[in-house]
Amino acid sequence: DYARGMRYAYFQATKGRMVMFVDCTELLNMRDMGPGLPWEFAYTDSNEYMTFDDVTLYSSKKGSSAPTLVVAYGNTVMSALQAQKDLAEIGIEIDVVDSPLLDRVSRGLKELVPKYDNVLFADVCKMGQNPLSSHMATMMNKGYFKDARNVRCIGAAQTYNPLGTKVTFTSKADIIESVEGILGKKQ
């Protein structure tokens, strides 16, 4: 997805569009965690690209969707995929969507969200500084959710850490706790 997205960003820039591409160093370091990670794909053909409106869905079930969707981007996608695995072990199925467009709600997200009973926006940024809260408000105001009472937004801990250790990111535990809260299963 990274290569496909970068190709599209470069194409847009050559046409005069201002493009900002944010890279997550933490994700680059995770490539050494071992083979078979859910976001690892064969390198794409040079003519393949991912538009700004495309999203990537990681379904928990083959052929059908779970009742709960976790919307994420950057390294929070990894945390959400880890949460997906742990929640499945206790009988809770979630789907995870990587929605990397931050300046507006993507067409892909607009098409996907109405299919779910519960939606958690899991942002890598701190609350109050997180783009996904804006996405959530925009979608709520336009009626995209089945039931707005089953929608939440979480962000990273309100902490300052110049070294960028994991405490500054939204964690797997944050996502699990929030999903359980939406479902009324919080311990």
List the helices and strands and how they pair.
Elements lengths: L1 H13 L10 H5 L26 E3 L9 E5 L2 H15 L4 E5 L8 H6 L5 E9 L4 H11 L9 E6 L15 H11 L5
Parallel strand pairs: 2-3, 2-4, 4-5
Antiparallel strand pairs: 1-3
Helix pairs in contact: 3-6
The whole-angstrom Rg is 16 Å
- Distance from first to last alpha carbon: 36 Å
* Percent range of helical residues: 25-40%
Number of helices: 6
The share of residues in extended strands comes to 5-15%
> Based on DSSP secondary structure assignment, what is the total number of beta strands?
5
Outline type:
globular
Major pleated sheet: 5 strands, mixed
Report the mean per-residue pLDDT as an integer.
83
Please supply descriptive tags for the structure shown above.
187 residues, alpha/beta, 5-stranded mixed sheet, 6 helices, 33% helix
Explain the overall architecture.
The protein has a five-stranded mixed beta sheet, with helices on both faces. Helices cover 33% and strands 15% of the residues. Helix 3 crosses helix 6. The protein starts with a helix and ends in a 5-residue tail after the last helix. Strand 2 (68-72), helix 3 and strand 3 (94-98) form a beta-alpha-beta unit. With 187 residues, the protein is an alpha/beta fold. The chain has helices spanning 2-14, 25-29, 75-89, 107-112, 131-141, 172-182; strands spanning 56-58, 68-72, 94-98, 118-126, 151-156.
